[in-house]
Amino acid sequence: MSVFIGGTTSLLARTPELLRTLLIGLPEGWTDTTDVPANGWRPRDVVGHLITGELTDWIERTQRILEHGTAVPFDKFDRFAHADRDTDATLDELVEHFARLRAENLARLADLVTDGDLDRRGMHPSLGEVTLRELLATWAVHDLDHVSQIFAGMAGSHDAEVGPWKAYLGILLRREDPSATPG
Amino acid sequence: MSVFIGGTTSLLARTPELLRTLLIGLPEGWTDTTDVPANGWRPRDVVGHLITGELTDWIERTQRILEHGTAVPFDKFDRFAHADRDTDATLDELVEHFARLRAENLARLADLVTDGDLDRRGMHPSLGEVTLRELLATWAVHDLDHVSQIFAGMAGSHDAEVGPWKAYLGILLRREDPSATPG
Q1: Which residues of A touch B17 (CB under 8 A)?
Q2: pLDDT tens per residue, chain B (183 residues)?
């Protein structure tokens, strides 16, 4: 296994346990707030979005590249599929659902992809030609992007509690003004 | 124990395991990049800063409030103490050092503070009067703020690998332009 596949897989395998450690059993007062005040996502929305990625995106696109190259573009990614799908699930249930799907998909990845495949190309419906290496790197960075969003929502849930210290807490200031710098 | 102290402690107790899950044994290619390109912090700098907080800030200030109220201002927090102190430690060692200090400090907190103390006041050297409740909330949100910084550095380490997908990854775009919005 290449350094690239090994490192990327190592990161991807950590996200379920990270979400468990962060969220399972945490009092709801920390998890009911969105990352940004307007049209933001709560932690449960973010986990739902990660579930959609496991169900419809990363491994499906990997298979599309291996089977069809650039001849058949990827299906579009529905960024809001979680909204209707997950209404009856608790946050803890969503985290465990994500963990199961991620484990299955990493097993599929290990079966499907070897070093020699990383430069194979697929067709993104908006971005054009991309490589399998770029897809896998994006899978991992997408995790980091969205877990950060969970942190912003959790911080936002205690915006009123920190008092004057808010001036030093970039994670709170940026929820209201993305270019704010802590004092 | 109040809902506030219980919830805040629950969050604070999770951070060491979170950092272990995220960082221990991760290939260095994910952990050698700063959160922002200019004057940013690598994950090891962030963990060092969290160590400084455990050594000199949160519990020390809690005791200052309980012993002296607003009569003796807090000592200033040295945001760069880690730079000289931690040069010989590996990232994994820093994470374990932080975990030990956090466990000790949460044990001290449980001995020191009860619900009735939360409205007691102290004197911040720059911000003026603050409450113990605000100090404890800030301790937890400060964790979230800085762990987010670790995520930004880790994402940044793979900036070049995601190819055209960068346009969709806010965590990468914001490293260069804080007000950037993913397309």
Answers
A1: 21
A2: 688 999 999 999 999 999 999 999 999 999 999 999 999 999 999 999 999 999 999 999 999 999 999 999 999 988 888 888 988 999 999 999 999 999 999 999 999 999 999 999 999 999 999 999 999 999 999 999 999 999 999 999 999 999 999 999 999 999 999 999 898
The candidate with the shortest Cα–Cα distance to A73, out of A120, A121, A118, A125, is A125
Residue B27 DSSP code: -
Q: Closest to A151 (Cβ–Cβ): which among B29, B131, B148?
A: B148
Q: How far is A57 from chain B (nearest CA, A)?
A: 13
Task: Measure the CA–CA gap between A49 and A86, rounded to whole angstroms.
Answer: 10
**Could you say which residues from 86 to 105 on chain B have a Cβ atom under 8 Å away from some Cβ of chain A?**
none
Q: CA B112, CA B65: separation in Å to the nearest integer?
A: 11
Q: A124–B164: do the CB atoms touch at under 8 Å?
A: yes
Q: Which residues of A touch B155 (CB under 8 A)?
A: 141, 144-145
**Residue B38, Cβ density class (10 Å: 0-12 exposed, 13-18 middle, ≥19 buried):** exposed
Query: Tokens for B24?
Result: 């221990």
What's the CA angle centered on A21, arms A20 and A22, to 5 degrees? 90
Q: How far is B96 from chain A (nearest CA, A)?
A: 16
ipTM of the complex: 0.96
Does pTM surpass 0.80?
Answer: yes
**What does the angle CA B60 – CA B62 – CA B65 come to, to the nearest 5 degrees?**
110
What would you report as the CA-atom Rg of chain A, rounded to the nearest whole angstrom? 18
- The DSSP-derived string for A99-120 is HHHHHHHHHHHHHH--GGGTT-
Burial class (CB in 10 A: 0-12, 13-18, 19+), B79: exposed
